[in-house]
Each structure stands twice: as C-alpha cells, then as structure tokens.
Design brief:
Elements (H helix, E strand, L loop, with lengths): L1 H11 L12 E5 L2 E4 H11 L9 H23 L6 H34 L2 E11 L6 H19 L4 H8 L11 E5 L7 H9 L9 E3 L2 E12 L3 E10 L4 H19 L4 H8 L22 H9 L10 E2 L3 E11 L7 H11 L1 H18 L1 E3 L1 H16 L12 E5 L2 E4 H10 L9 H28 L1 H30 L1 H10 L5 E2 L2 E9 L2 H13 L6 H9 L7 E6 L14 E7 L2 E11 L2 E2 L2 H27 L2 E3 L1 H5 L4
Antiparallel strand pairs: 1-2, 1-19, 3-4, 3-6, 5-6, 7-9, 8-9, 10-11, 11-12, 13-18, 14-15, 14-17, 16-17
Helix pairs in contact: 1-16, 3-16, 4-11, 4-16, 5-6, 12-15, 13-15, 15-16, 16-20, 17-20
Length: about 650
C-alpha cells in the first residue's frame, strides 16, 4: 500500500522546488479558495526541465489539470474520506516521520559541520574533577561546587595544574599524574560541554569550571595535533608471566617470531598458531578499525606509527604482554565513504543531540506561549513524589485541575498522572524527586512536539506543502480506487461494451519479423543477398560453405519491427525483402522474413489495453460530473498576472 502511494505521489510530483509566494485567490471551488502561492508551488515543481515558462498556454494547461486535482480532493472530503480512522492513523505516522526528518535535517547539520571540523584534530587534555553522585543532596552538590571553585582559585593564583589535580581531584586514575587523560578526538569525550572546552580552549590554558551530570570539572588543553583517524592491524600476542625466568623465554620466543616474519613467514598463519589472544587468533590476528584512546597507549602508539599497509612493528611490551603488529589499513577523517554517516550515528547517540532537543523544545514553548499554573502544579508534584517514595504509581484524580497550557491547549494533572503511571519504570535508579522531574520533562516534550507537528506547517512552507500533498494523495488514492481503478476491472459488462465501441483502438499494428546478418565487407554482403534470394531459409550446404569462405556465418539476430520504428527505415517492407546497410567497419544484411498485416485484437488479447482505456474513460466521465456538481470560478485577472 505504502509503496503504491509513494509511486502515486511521485506521479503528482511531490518533490519540493518552488519558493511559493502570493496570497491572492486564483480560483474557488464553491467557497474553498486556492491561493496563487499554492498553485505556483505545484506548477513549478511539476513542470521541471524548464517547462515552467509562465507562458499563458502553459499556465492555462496546468491550471486545468490542477482544478481537476482539487475537484477530486473536494469530492473525497465531501464523502468523509478524510475522517477515515485508517487515513488519520497513516497521516499521523507520516506527520511524525516528516517532522522528525525536518528537525534532524536542521539540527544535525549544525552539529555535523562542527564535528567534521573537530574531527581534523586530536586534543590532549588533563582535568580536575570533583565528583557528585546521582542522588546527592543540594548541600552535597554545593560543597562539591565550592571545592572546585577552590581549585580554580588556586590555578588563578599561580599553582600548577598538575599540583592542584594531585591535591584536589577526585579522579583516582589520573590525579597521580596531574590529571592527564591523554588524546581524544571528536565524540569521544563523554559530555558535550567538556568537548567544547577541549576544542575551544587554547593550548596551555585551562577552562572555567564546568558542570556535568557526574560532577564539576576544569579542563586543561595540553596539545593539539592533526587527527590520526582510525587504524586496522593484525596482532600476535604473547602473554607475560609472573615468573622472571619464564619471561626471558617469552621474550626470546617473540624475537624468534619476529625473525620468521622478516624472513617472509605468513603473519596470519603465525597469529593462528602462536598468538595467545583468544579474540583474534582465529581471524589471523585481525582487529577491527579502532580510533585513538581505545587501547593501551603503548599499543596504540605502535599501531598508529606504522606507515604503509603490510608494515610490521618490532616486538614491544605493555604491562601484560608482548606484541607484534601488522598494518592492514588506515583511514583519515573525511577520506572514507561512510565518514559522515558514522558521525551522524554518533551525534544522535550523544548528549549534544539531547541538549539541542531540549533547547528546541524551550524555544517552541517560548515562541508559542507556555503557561504553568504554579499552585496546581506544585500541589500535584508534591503528591506524586510522595507516592513515588512509597513505590506507588497509580494516581486517582477526582477533579482534574489544569497544570499548564500551550497557547489555548490545556493539560491537567490527570493527563500527567496517566503519563507517570504508564512510564514509571523509566529512570528506576533515580530518586523520587529526580524521577518526577525527568518524567515531567518527557511529558512536556511529547505534548510540545504533538502541538508543533501541527503548527509547524505555518512556519515552514516546504513541510506544510509536503504534508498537505501526502494527505491529498492518500485521499485521492482511495477515491480513484473506488471510482476508477477497481471499477474498470470489476465492471466486466461496462468493460466489454467499451471494447466493442472502441475496437479500432485495439488493432495490432502491421509488423515484420526481421533477420539481421553480419558480413565483413560489401562484397560478402552482396553475396549473402544473392544466396538469400535463391534460398530464403539459407539451408543449402553449398551456399553456406561459399559464404563461410568469405567470412559470413549462418548466425543471425532475430528482430521485430513496426512501420513507425527506426528499424523500419533500414529494411525492405515486403516478404523476403533484403537490404544491405553499412554498420561501423562491417555491413549488415536485413531480411524481412515475414510481414504480419494489421488486424483486430480479440477481447481477451485487448483486455489490458481495454482496462487502461476504460479507466481513462471513467475518469473523464467522473470529472464531468464533478464540474457540474461544484462551482469553479477562476480569477482571470490574477491568472494573467502570472504570465511572464
């Protein structure tokens, strides 16, 4: 169904191209006006390939088609098809999909542009981190913020970043080395505001205090370098031992493996038989592509230091093992086909996407008008949180009370209570206060989007036009199915009568069966013609042998031609007609083997053509009825004002 709809809509030309303007009424169907802007939009996008020339002839021809289209929509509405629950459901799904695609197009583009730019650099950062747990009280959060502020003041009074990190940071993994986190690339740092600090702070400087969901941070930028991208290697891994003597033997073994590789041994085979890495040895040691900050720094440094495909590293050790690596491939940011798609996927999973969404919702509410009934909302919130604390999620609302409005649409505590009941399993790890706040924000976002899906058509012409066309397309599809397409197939009596009244439209055209032979030169072609005149089936062995000696075989291409075809110009239109035609560096001989005269098709032979013709007839008759049923008035002055 959906596939057919899409094909149908494309036939109407639903690709948005024109930037329509003009509030004048071009025509009316009864009391329903159609504005110039709507007509121009449709006219431009349906008349692509420079056919929208705004000549009077072109405008009037298209106006007739568009009036017919609007008449069908008017009839569908008068029949109540637009109220059909199935249509409403299908339209709602499309509205949501279209709205989200417009949102993503506008939102993701800015984030993608930023990410592409940042992907060109890797950034080395250190941080001072003061932790705040998810269930921290306001007092605990305030103390953590003051602690970070103390760290910031120490930095400003001349203390080194490393010193302050060692003294105050809560990050037990980095405080000993002065808060050093190492190099990161775009979309690797957990929080967007930390990434912003990393890319926007000059090398050697530190950021102002930053809050994230896990605490407070100060970020120092140590270095920036051209991005290393991603690398793909194969590895041979030999685990270390706690026994020193055994470790000497392991080192000797690794050196021997390296010498074998230098002598030409197959890396994949050695990895399968010698490597102790269970995850890769079965694949010849092969790892998937990986970016920086994924593995042990020593391992990564050796992997990214390999320059050319096939290069093999010298043996090196980490805390736990010895390795030998082989470079399989490298890809730099922006230099591989899926780069942008990979970024978009990561963007949509990141907090920056959520933050943009929140800002977008707040902007919509601000522009359209959002009002909270403070007393009623606070009263409900207190009760809801008390119930959450008791693990009670069913709310009884005897007298629904308004808690907020978006323009003139009011939502009550009963609406929010139902949402809380249905979604109480979300955010199970949060305390009652946090759980309520998150669920309320989700509820507010859902209702804001529900409202804006409908209102957005007035903000964005393209969105509104596509939405209307999709709606009209569904209406017309159902109506055409009832009035024309199915009727032409099911009304066998009417179909047969149409066939009998229009037999002359279903004649077979005169056609010819043609054989096309090839010859290496004109002399050989003429010889072939001579023998075909004598023996049209060319079955005589004597002739075939003579032709073969001239480079002509008995093979041919079977063709069919009608008198209007290009092929008909190359052939002789008579039984066993022969014609020689030059063809590149050779010659073609066309033999008109048999001509079939024009004849009447039977009803069964004509059925497919008859159905198509009958559908066209039914549609024309139906349109005549619609023109009599509805009063169409065109403002000729407005139409002439469009002529260019």
């Amino acid at each position: 169904m959906m596939k057919n709809l899409i094909i149908f809509l494309l036939s109407l030309g639903v690709l948005f191209q024109a930037n329509a303007s003009g509030d004048d009424t071009l025509f009316k169907i009864d009391d329903t006006p159609v504005k110039v802007a709507e007509f121009e939009y449709i006219y431009n996008k349906n008349n692509f390939d420079n056919k929208a020339d705004y000549s009077e002839k072109s405008l009037r021809e298209y106006l007739e088609l568009y009036i017919n289209f609007r008449l069908k929509v008017k009839e569908a509405e008068s029949m109540g098809l637009d109220k059909d629950p199935k249509l409403q459901s299908e339209l709602k799904v499309y509205q949501e999909q279209l709205y989200n695609s417009f949102y993503d197009k506008n939102t993701v583009k800015g984030l993608l542009d930023e990410a592409e730019k940042r992907a060109k650099e890797d950034v080395s950062i250190s941080h001072i981190f003061i932790s705040v747990s998810g269930d921290a009280t306001l007092e605990e959060k305030t103390l953590a913020e003051k602690k970070l502020q103390s760290a910031y003041e120490m930095l400003q009074t001349g203390h080194s970043f490393e010193e302050v990190a060692q003294k105050l940071s809560d990050d037990k993994y980095t405080k000993a080395n002065g808060g050093l986190l190492g190099y990161f690339t775009v979309l690797q740092i957990a929080f967007y505001n930390l990434e912003n600090a990393a890319y926007n702070t000059p090398v050697g400087s530190y950021s102002k205090p930053i809050e994230t969901p896990i605490g407070f941070h100060i970020v120092k930028v140590n270095d920036k370098r051209p991005a290393r991208g991603e690398v793909k290697v194969a590895l041979i891994k030999i685990n270390k031992s706690e026994d020193a003597t055994r470790n000497e033997a392991i080192q000797t073994k690794v050196s021997a493996l390296y010498q074998q590789l230098k002598s030409g041994s197959d890396f994949a085979q050695l990895a399968k038989t010698q490597s102790e890495d269970a995850n890769t040895k079965g694949k010849g040691g092969e790892l998937d592509f990986f970016p920086i900050s994924q593995y042990d720094p020593v391992f990564e440094e050796n992997a990214f230091s390999l320059k050319d495909k096939g290069d093999i590293s010298q043996p090196f050790e980490t805390d736990n093992a010895w390795y030998i690596l082989k470079l399989l491939d490298k890809k730099l940011p922006g230099e591989y086909p899926d780069f942008k798609d990979d970024l978009i996927t990561k963007i949509k999973k990141s907090d920056r996407y959520d933050l943009k969404r929140e800002a977008y919702i707040m902007d919509v509410l601000d522009r359209y008008g959002f009002q909270v009934m403070d007393a009623a909302f606070k009263n409900f919130k207190t009760k809801a949180i008390d119930q959450f604390k008791l693990n009670q999620y069913k709310f009884t609302i005897d007298q629904p009370t308004s808690i907020f409005k978006i323009i003139d649409k009011t939502y009550t505590d009963a609406d929010l209570a139902e949402y809380l009941s249905n979604n109480h399993l979300k955010y199970r790890r949060l305390d009652a206060n946090q759980k309520f706040d998150r669920l309320y924000n989700d509820f507010l976002e859902e209702k804001t989007i529900d409202f804006h899906i409908l209102a957005y058509g007035k903000e964005n012409l393209e969105y509104g036009a596509l939405l209307n066309e999709y709606r009209d397309g569904i209406l017309l599809f159902d109506l055409m199915e009832k009035k024309v397409w199915s009727k032409a197939v099911e009304d066998t009596t009417g179909l047969k009568e149409y066939y009998l009244n229009n037999k002359s439209n279903f004649l077979t055209k005169e056609k010819a069966d043609v054989r096309k032979f090839s010859a290496p030169n004109e002399k050989a072609a003429n010889l072939l013609v001579k023998y075909l005149n004598i023996d049209p089936d060319l079955a005589n062995t004597k002739y075939l042998k003579k032709l073969e000696s001239k480079g002509v075989t008995n093979s041919y291409e079977q063709l069919s031609a009608e008198k209007s075809d290009e092929l008909s110009k190359k052939i002789s239109w008579k039984d066993n007609g022969l014609k020689v035609m030059p063809s590149d560096n050779s010659y073609s001989v066309y033999q008109t083997y048999q001509i079939f005269p024009e004849r009447e098709r039977s009803f069964e032979e004509s059925k497919g053509f008859a159905i198509a013709g009958y559908q066209e007839y039914l549609e024309k008759e139906w349109l005549n009825e619609l023109h009599h049923k509805y009063n169409v008035v065109v403002d000729d002055t407005v139409l002439k004002g469009l002529i260019k």
